[in-house]
């Protein structure tokens, strides 16, 4: 029974390793941008942390060959993962000053290095304990356990990227990962050491973190009230809608990965960004007789509505259904009035259907347009 539990433990820890790495891109992506530097930092920290964990875990397994030590390491890893949502703001604030490259690397190391290091210790420890309990050949045993761990990593990657992030959000998945590690450790103490009471004290505080919390609303020192109406972790980035109130002024911003993508004055209903007016004037000046337009990248939905003032019918292509829902709910965007297609902009251009007098590219991933939409080939399709 204990050996089977070790195999299950290897599977779960392998899954959590990949969950933590994927969540890392969603946690440090908004402040540092979803860029090559962020992924380079995350992969570097993951590999270095795991390597150090493998090395030290192997040494400790030879010196202190006990199941209690292994599951104690897993418990500490779970507690550290539970801390990530609580300390991420502080860490990000103090690493942003280092710049994009050094800052993203330092932030990744501080937030994800310790739990990944601890989880790296699990594999050599598991092999050592399993070999002491089993008469199987060394090569066969090591290969089997690492295959199980890798299958867990595969499952963790697929579930996190395809299902969990859009459904639960980053913080809840982080707490779920922490609770899973703590539960694995607790299971050992309950099933094989018969110490249920001590386990309850470890699990209850983490379970309390799952209690739903209201979205934040604060008042700044100057009297401005700031209210977060929406904070959604979609498959294509974090979506936020934020209101600002000061006296009679009421403004609303739409943010994608913490980058402002549109803002309106709620009192008058007009956009407050000069960019919006530059766009519509440029388009109208180049094509004053325009009747049909295509907008790639919806944002808050302001541009299609501004085009309609000139009698221009506008089709919209947006890859993220969460963006469409946010624009519809908080910015009065009408997907019936402006036919909206949920797909990649370049794929839509490949279809060749329809003729447009204006094609406006307004798609962003963080602070930059997706590279495949600003290539020579994409412009040739347009």
Explain what you see.
The chain has 382 residues and is α/β, with parallel strands linked by helices. It has helices at residues 2-32, 36-63, 67-95, 100-120, 122-133, 138-168, 170-192, 196-208, 274-286, 302-308, 321-330, 345-351, 376-381, and strands at residues 217-219, 225-234, 237-246, 249-256, 259-265, 292-296, 313-317, 340-341, 358-361. It is 60% helix and 14% strand. The strands form two sheets. Strands 1-2-3-4-5 form a five-stranded antiparallel sheet. It has a four-stranded parallel sheet with strand order 8-7-6-9, with helices on one face. α1 (2-32) packs antiparallel against α4 (100-120) and α1 runs antiparallel to α7. The mean pLDDT is 87.
Care to count the β-strands?
Answer: 9
Shape verdict:
elongated
Q: What is the average per-residue confidence, as pLDDT, rounded to a whole number?
A: 87
How large is the count of helical segments?
Answer: 13
Helix and strand sequence:
HHHHHHHHEEEEEHEHEHEHEH
Structural class, by secondary structure, is alpha/beta
pLDDT < 50 runs, ≥5 residues = none
Provide the gyration radius in Å: 25 Å
């Amino acid at each position: 029974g204990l050996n089977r539990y070790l195999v299950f433990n290897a599977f779960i820890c392998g899954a959590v390793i990949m969950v933590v790495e994927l969540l890392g891109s969603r946690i440090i992506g908004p402040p540092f941008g979803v860029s090559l530097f962020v992924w380079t930092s995350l992969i570097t920290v993951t590999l270095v942390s795991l390597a150090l964990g493998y090395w030290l875990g192997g040494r400790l397994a030879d010196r202190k060959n006990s199941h209690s030590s292994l599951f104690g390491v897993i418990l500490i890893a779970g507690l550290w993962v539970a801390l990530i949502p609580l300390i991420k703001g502080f860490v990000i604030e103090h690493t942003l000053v280092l710049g994009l490259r050094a800052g993203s690397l330092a932030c990744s190391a501080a937030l994800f290095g310790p739990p990944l290091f601890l989880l790296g210790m699990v594999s050599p420890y598991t092999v050592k304990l399993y070999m002491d309990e089993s008469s199987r050949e060394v090569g066969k045993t090591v290969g089997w356990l690492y295959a199980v761990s890798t299958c867990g990593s595969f499952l963790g990657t697929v579930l996190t990227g395809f299902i969990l992030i859009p459904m639960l959000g980053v913080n809840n998945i982080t707490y779920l990962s922490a609770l899973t590690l703590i539960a694995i450790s607790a299971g050992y103490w309950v099933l094989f050491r018969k110490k249920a009471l001590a386990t309850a004290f470890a699990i209850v505080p983490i379970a309390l973190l799952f209690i739903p919390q209201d979205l934040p609303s604060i008042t700044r020192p100057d009297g401005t009230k700031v209210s977060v109406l929406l904070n959604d972790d979609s498959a294509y980035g974090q979506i936020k809608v934020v209101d600002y109130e000061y006296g009679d002024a009421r403004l609303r911003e739409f943010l994608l990965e913490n980058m402002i993508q549109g803002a309106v004055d709620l009192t008058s209903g007009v956009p407050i960004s000069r960019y919006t007016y530059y766009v519509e004037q440029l388009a109208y000046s180049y094509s004053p007789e325009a009747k049909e337009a295509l907008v790639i990248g919806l944002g808050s939905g302001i541009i299609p509505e501004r085009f309609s003032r000139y009698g221009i019918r506008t089709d919209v292509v947006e890859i993220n259904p969460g963006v469409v829902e946010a624009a519809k709910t908080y910015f009065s965007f009408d997907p019936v009035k402006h036919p909206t297609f949920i797909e990649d902009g370049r794929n839509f251009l490949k279809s060749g259907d329809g003729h447009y007098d204006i094609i406006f590219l307004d798609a962003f991933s963080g602070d930059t347009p997706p590279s495949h939409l600003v290539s020579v080939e994409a412009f040739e399709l347009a």
